C-alpha cells in the first residue's frame, strides 16, 4: 500500500498540514522541520497526490494534448515541442491519440477534464467540431494547433496552408509541369481544404484548367498516398508531377511510382508538405513545404499558460509562414 501524507506526519510528529506546507515550499516552516519531513518522505517513498493537491490549489500543473495520429511524425514533432516547453514551466503533459475520430475526441476530453487538467492543446479539430465549441462556451483553457474550425477565429496556431499549397504547385509550374496532380488530406479538415485551395489558385494564376481526375482525396497516411497514386498512374494521360498534402502521402505516392519501375524525378516529380525528418532520408530526398513544428508546439504552451495564469482567454490567431525546401524529387 502506498504511504499517505498522514503516515509521513505521524513519523515526523507533525500535523499533515505541516507536511503539505513542506511539499509546497512554504517559507514559514523552519529548516529543522523541513529537513526532518523531507527525510521521512524520502524514506517512505511518499509521492504527493497531484489531483488531491489540485483540489486545494485549483491547479494540477498538467496539460492535456490530443493528436489525431501518434504515428504521424508531424504530430510527434509538435508534441515534442509541447512537452519541452511544458517541462520548462513545471507542467506535465498527458498525450491522447484520437485516430482522427470525433467520438474518441469527446471521450478523451471528458477523461482529461475529469483528471482536472489545467488546459488543453488540440491538434484534432475538424471543420465542424461541437466538442471544441463547447470548450469555448465554458471558457475552458484551450489552444488549437495545426487545425482550426468554423466559428472560431482565435486561440489557434496554424501555418498559412493556402500559401503553402500555392508555393508547392507554383514551384512545379515553374519547372515546366502543366499536368499536376494533387493528393489531398481528408476534406473534413480545414488545412487539407486550404492546401487544395492553394493548388487551385496557382493553376488559375498560370491559366491552367483545373481537372477533377487529377485530384484524389487521401488520409494523411502513406497508404492513402499509395492508393491515390495508383489511380493516377492508370489515367490515359497521367500527371507529370504530384503535389501531396503531407509528406506521408508523398512517400506513398513515391512508392507507387517506383513499384511500377518509373523513376523520380525523371518520370514524375513529387513534392510534399510538412518536412518531417524522414523526408530528407528517403531516396530521392523529398522536396517539400516546411512547417515549423517544434515552434508550433512551444508557442501553443506559451499561449495556453497565458490563458491559465493570466486569464487572457481570447488569444490571437497565429499564422506561421511555410517555407519551400528544395531537395531531389522534382525536375524540369
Question: Short summary of the structure?
Answer:
This protein is an alpha/beta fold. The protein has helices at residues 5-12, 16-23, 31-44, 50-57, 73-88, 102-114, 130-137, 161-174, 190-205, 222-233, 247-259, 293-310, and strands spanning 62-67, 92-97, 119-122, 142-145, 156-159, 180-184, 215-217, 241-244, 269-271, 288-290, 317-320, 323-325.
Please tell me about this protein's structure.
This protein is an alpha/beta fold and 332 residues long. The chain folds into 3 domains: 5-48, 434 Repressor (Amino-terminal Domain) (Orthogonal Bundle), CATH 1.10.260; 59-159 and 293-321, Rossmann fold (3-Layer(aba) Sandwich), CATH 3.40.50; 161-290, Response regulator (Rossmann fold, 3-Layer(aba) Sandwich), CATH 3.40.50. It has helices at residues 5-12, 16-23, 31-44, 50-57, 73-88, 102-114, 130-137, 161-174, 190-205, 222-233, 247-259, 293-310; strands spanning 62-67, 92-97, 119-122, 142-145, 156-159, 180-184, 215-217, 241-244, 269-271, 288-290, 317-320, 323-325. The strands form 3 sheets. A 6-stranded parallel β-sheet has the order 2-1-3-4-5-11, sandwiched between helices. The protein is elongated, with a radius of gyration of 25 Å. The N and C termini lie far apart (69 Å). The mean pLDDT is 92.
Amino acid at each position: 500500500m502506498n504511504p499517505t501524507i498522514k503516515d509521513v506526519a505521524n513519523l515526523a510528529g507533525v500535523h499533515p498540514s505541516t507536511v503539505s506546507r513542506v511539499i509546497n515550499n512554504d517559507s514559514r516552516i523552519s529548516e529543522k522541520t523541513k529537513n526532518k519531513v523531507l527525510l521521512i518522505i524520502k524514506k517512505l517513498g511518499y509521492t504527493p497526490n497531484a489531483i488531491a493537491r489540485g483540489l486545494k490549489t485549483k491547479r494540477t500543473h498538467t496539460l492535456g494534448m490530443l493528436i489525431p495520429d501518434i504515428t504521424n511524425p508531424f504530430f510527434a514533432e509538435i508534441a515534442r515541442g509541447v512537452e519541452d516547453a511544458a517541462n520548462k514551466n513545471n507542467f506535465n503533459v498527458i498525450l491522447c491519440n484520437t485516430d482522427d475520430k470525433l467520438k474518441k475526441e469527446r471521450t478523451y476530453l471528458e477523461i482529461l477534464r475529469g483528471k482536472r487538467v489545467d488546459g488543453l492543446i488540440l491538434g484534432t479539430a475538424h471543420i465542424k467540431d461541437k466538442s471544441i465549441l463547447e470548450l469555448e462556451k465554458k471558457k475552458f483553457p484551450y489552444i488549437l494547433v495545426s487545425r482550426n474550425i468554423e466559428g472560431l477565429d482565435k486561440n489557434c496556431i496554424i501555418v498559412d496552408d493556402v500559401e503553402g499549397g500555392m508555393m508547392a504547385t507554383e514551384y512545379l509550374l515553374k519547372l515546366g509541369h502543366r499536368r499536376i496532380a494533387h493528393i489531398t488530406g481528408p476534406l473534413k479538415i480545414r488545412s487539407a481544404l486550404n492546401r487544395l485551395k492553394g493548388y487551385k489558385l496557382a493553376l488559375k494564376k498560370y491559366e491552367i484548367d483545373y481537372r477533377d481526375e487529377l485530384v484524389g482525396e487521401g488520409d494523411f497516411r502513406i497508404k492513402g498516398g499509395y492508393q491515390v497514386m495508383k489511380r493516377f498512374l492508370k489515367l490515359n494521360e497521367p500527371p507529370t508531377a504530384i503535389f501531396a498534402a503531407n509528406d506521408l502521402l508523398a512517400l506513398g505516392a513515391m512508392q507507387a511510382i517506383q513499384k511500377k519501375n518509373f523513376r523520380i524525378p525523371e518520370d514524375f516529380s513529387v513534392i510534399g508538405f510538412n518536412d518531417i525528418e524522414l523526408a530528407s532520408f528517403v531516396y530521392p530526398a523529398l522536396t517539400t513545404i516546411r512547417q515549423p513544428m517544434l515552434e508550433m508546439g512551444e508557442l501553443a504552451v506559451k499561449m495556453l499558460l497565458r490563458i491559465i495564469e493570466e486569464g487572457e482567454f481570447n488569444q490571437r490567431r497565429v499564422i506561421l509562414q511555410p517555407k519551400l525546401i528544395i531537395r531531389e524529387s522534382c525536375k524540369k
